[in-house]
Amino acid sequence: MLSQNQTLDFLINRLISEGFPSETLAIGYKLGGLKEIELAVIDINTNLPIVLFVTIENQGKIEVNGGRARLQTIAKSLDQSVISCMVYPIDDEPYFGVYEINNYAGVIISTNLPKFNDKYYKGKRNAILSGKARNAEKKKKSEVNRLSFASWLSALIIFNIFILQIIKIIELDAISITLIGVIIGLVIIPFASKIKFFGIEFERYTREKKE
């Protein structure tokens, strides 16, 4: 019986022969804090996984259940749908078998290897990329709404302070006005990479994304 590494080698060679560009095949794909995934087919423009492959030692019930549980755990950690497959060794060509599972029900839905040019793979890839774009747009709209609320609230506070000063209830000196500007800047800065108030510049720290 072939080892899992040998099975993976046969799988990679077959994927390349089916039209998958070698640069889309990520061996030991790392996803957050989860264990490395044996192989992922990724979109080279976004680095998003389209197909995930985990290897199992055989077709036994324990191995299949373990692979199924692992794939479902991975799928739950993603904000997108992926094609999830288990790969196991067999004695005859192509020397591996495939179980594709439904990420939600965990049932086996196919024993066919995804092909780069077929409608199923292309449809899934387009759905994943479109879903990611929609999520990004929703996040952007949410941040715009929060910024709008913060801006209106800041304007209301400043207006009330201005009225109170006019009717002589409070008096503001230059330091107080500067502090108000700083406070408003601290409210708004989460929505901007850099902002400047009264000669004081604030810049948001952004952690560099690790690939």
Which architecture of the largest domain per CATH? 3-Layer(aba) Sandwich
Reported by name, the CATH topology of the largest domain is Trna Endonuclease, Chain: A, domain 1
Number of domains: 2
Strand proportion: 15-25%
Task: Describe the protein in words.
This protein is an alpha+beta fold and 211 residues long. The protein has two domains: 4-117, Trna Endonuclease, Chain: A, domain 1; 144-203. Helix content is 45%, strand content 20%. It has helices at 4-17, 61-77, 119-166, 174-188, and strands spanning 25-29, 37-42, 49-55, 83-89, 96-101, 108-110, 194-197, 200-203. The strands form two sheets. The protein has a six-stranded mixed sheet with strand order 1-2-3-4-5-6. A two-stranded antiparallel ribbon has the order 7-8. Residues 205-211 have low confidence and may be disordered.
Keywords for this structure?
4 helices; 211 residues; disordered C terminus; Trna Endonuclease, Chain: A, domain 1; 2 domains; single chain
Question: How is this fold's topology laid out?
Answer:
Blueprint: H1 4-17, E1 25-29, E2 37-42, E3 49-55, H2 61-77, E4 83-89, E5 96-101, E6 108-110, H3 119-166, H4 174-188, E7 194-197, E8 200-203
Parallel strand pairs: 3-4
Antiparallel strand pairs: 1-2, 2-3, 4-5, 5-6, 7-8
